[in-house]
Amino acid sequence: MRALAIIIAIFLAGNALASDQQGHWKAISKRSKISGKPFEVIYVEANDGANCSAIGSQPAYFAFKCDEGTPLVALHTNCVMNDEDYNEIQYRFDEDEVRAKYVHRLPDMMGQYIRMNSAIEFAKEALGKKELVIRASDHRGAFMEMDFNITGIEEAIEPVRKACNW
Description:
Layout: H1 7-11, E1 15-16, E2 26-31, E3 38-45, E4 50-52, E5 56-58, E6 61-67, E7 70-76, E8 86-93, E9 99-105, E10 111-115, H2 116-126, E11 131-137, E12 143-149, H3 153-156, H4 158-163
Antiparallel strand pairs: 1-2, 2-3, 3-6, 4-5, 6-7, 7-10, 8-9, 8-11, 9-10, 11-12
């Protein structure tokens, strides 16, 4: 999962999509020099960041990604996350009911992710929505809530969908 290590760099770069109506989505588009397969990422920053119990408010990012045909959804908090490799987050789109999803911890321990079919299902659930609220726990077990403006997801996610053929 070499591409997970790239996620930190992804959140530090990117080009904003053209219209204000696209929320605050940023995108990165590359091709593997070895396989020639696409690497597509869209990401958005949390409105108020993540409130880490140890260090206070930190920038947080939410991303949809396709890396050489593998779909991935990632949350990067800049906070050390729960010590477990696999744990649960709660989330809600707009005013929908709160749901839970099991996620994996990123190798740098600063975020969590889901991949493959679970990532595609989550992405499809986001279509047509304007807000995503996520509740996750850090390494001390303290909960942090992050909200993301995902307006314009339908258009912003197209390169990711195309690259992963869904």
